[in-house]
Amino acid sequence: MFQASIKKSLTDDFVHSSHYIQNAQELKESGSITIVGSGQSAAEIFYDLLADQDRFGYELSLFTRSAGFFQMEEGKLGLEMFSPEYVEYFHELEYSKRKEALPLLGSIRNGIQVKTLKNIYDLLYHRSIGNKHSPAHIQAMSELDQVKQIDAKTYELNFNQWQDESNFSHKSEKIILATGYQPKLPNWFEQFKDEIVWESEKEFGVELDGRLQFKQPRDAQIFALSDVVHAHGTGATNLALAVQRNQRIINYVTGKETYPISRGNTFQHFK
């Protein structure tokens, strides 16, 4: 997540990836656009801007602090980690084991789809034929350290290339932050803070069906659909499993298996 000093420097010229579509036209009418990020959202936005670059004529750059622009695991056996069986297996592990497992699942949870990377490379290749310069600047291992506005239209972005420990600056009129999301508990949640089971200072206990774990039994429940990676692993942020998460909630509320959870579709076993 961005440092506090950088957040204070952000203006309307900085657009989060979640607001890209509604700001795309204005962004494309600028002289230069820089994307910061390395995931699927950053890649899709970069590809869209690359495709329209000839028509609008802006300079285009992509930076990430990650070690590279890597593909997401899309093998069929790998994707079985998103099955109900794996979510149930992961949830049964002790908290310490779950935390140890999450980094090992990085290629499943993070990265860019193979087809998106291929489309970007093919477009870069065809656009570079006969040209002396690449149509875009792409650079990994570069962490954004500071932002300065140098005139009415332009910003100077200061980066640290963390591997060779060098610093460099980059100028841009518009900046797109594809830097992900940070969970934030609503203010009303504070009243339950002492009643909830906490697995760490910031991570609350969660049942398999999404119910927050309370220290004492209660009739009224609170269900969490986000900020539960520590409890549900790979399935916590996977949109394809949104239906499954809702099924579990409805089944609890109705007190019966109103919507059966589909199982037996994996070829591997997890225990």
From TrEMBL:
InterPro entries: FAD/NAD-bd_sf (IPR036188), Lys/Orn_oxygenase (IPR025700). Pfam families: Lys_Orn_oxgnase. The keyword Oxidoreductase applies. It catalyses: L-lysine + NADPH + O2 = N(6)-hydroxy-L-lysine + NADP(+) + H2O. GO terms for molecular function: monooxygenase activity. Pathway: Siderophore biosynthesis. Coiled coil: none annotated. It comes from the Bacteria. Its EC number is 1.14.13.59. It is an enzyme of class 1 (oxidoreductase). Its cofactor is FAD. Keywords: FAD, Flavoprotein, Monooxygenase, NADP, Oxidoreductase. Gene3D superfamilies: FAD/NAD(P)-binding domain (3.50.50.60). Belongs to the lysine N(6)-hydroxylase/L-ornithine N(5)-oxygenase family. PANTHER family: L-ORNITHINE N(5)-MONOOXYGENASE, MONOOXYGENASE. This is L-lysine N6-monooxygenase MbtG.
